[in-house]
Design brief:
Blueprint lengths: L6 H7 L6 E4 L2 H14 L4 E4 L12 E7 L8 H10 L1 E11 L5 H11 L11 H9 L3 E9 L10 H7 L1 H9 L2 H17 L6 E9 L1
Parallel strand pairs: 1-2, 3-4
Antiparallel strand pairs: 4-6, 5-6
């Protein structure tokens, strides 16, 4: 769910599974299809909304999402769709954004200025039992990335590469834009030497 460029789908298909990747972005799906073909992987990439998946009930042996389903505006609906399309005994795998993380703090800033997603994506870890516990037996663990902290990007690069920042910056006046830049630079400074952290959720459908 929210397959994006296909990275998670490639990893699962590489282990021998039949994989369907779903995303709202046709551009991302086209990129994923090209990459899958180059890798010799037969993956079915389809357009679809996490809140209204185009599949029958219990259609899959497992459902997974890497930092994607958390951006669905209606968290309850997206969680219900994960459960609906997963057969009893099927597996669940998610990676979630912590609130106390670089991206979590960035989203908090965007929302403070009237941008970003309508619901905070980093609220998922606090709501796992509420959202998924009725359908899945879940285990949640916080992990630290083995990768070093990412290099700090210049403001111009942030605006160019992060769509939510670009959209917000484009509609703020000069003073508000300067405040946004200062707030985000404070976030980058605060997390500059910290390795990224993330939650891993694994579960089984009841």
């Amino acid at each position: 769910m929210g397959t994006g460029g296909g990275g998670l789908a490639f990893a699962i298909a590489g282990r021998g599974a039949d994989v369907v990747g779903v995303d709202v972005s046709e551009e991302g799906l086209e990129h994923a299809r090209r990459q899958a073909a180059e890798r010799g992987l037969a993956i079915d990439f389809r357009p679809g909304d996490a809140q209204h998946l185009p599949f029958e009930d219990e259609a899959f042996d497992g459902v997974a999402s890497a930092f994607a389903v958390i951006f669905a505006p209606d968290q309850e609906r997206a969680a219900a769709e994960l459960a609906r399309v997963c057969r009893p005994g099927g597996k669940l795998g998610l990676t979630l954004m912590p609130m106390d993380s670089r991206m979590g703090a960035l989203m908090t800033v965007l929302r403070r200025f009237g941008g970003g997603p309508p619901t905070h994506p980093a609220s998922w870890p606090e709501r796992v039992d509420e959202l998924l516990g009725g359908s899945f037996d879940v285990d949640v663990k916080l992990r630290e990335s083995p990768e070093p902290p990412p290099q700090r990007m210049a403001w111009e690069e942030v605006v160019r590469s992060v769509g939510a920042v670009r959209e917000l910056a484009d509609r703020l006046d000069a003073d508000q834009g300067a405040e946004l830049r200062a707030a985000l630079e404070h976030v980058f400074d605060s997390f500059g030497d910290r390795r990224p952290t993330y939650f891993v959720v694994v579960g089984r459908r009841r």
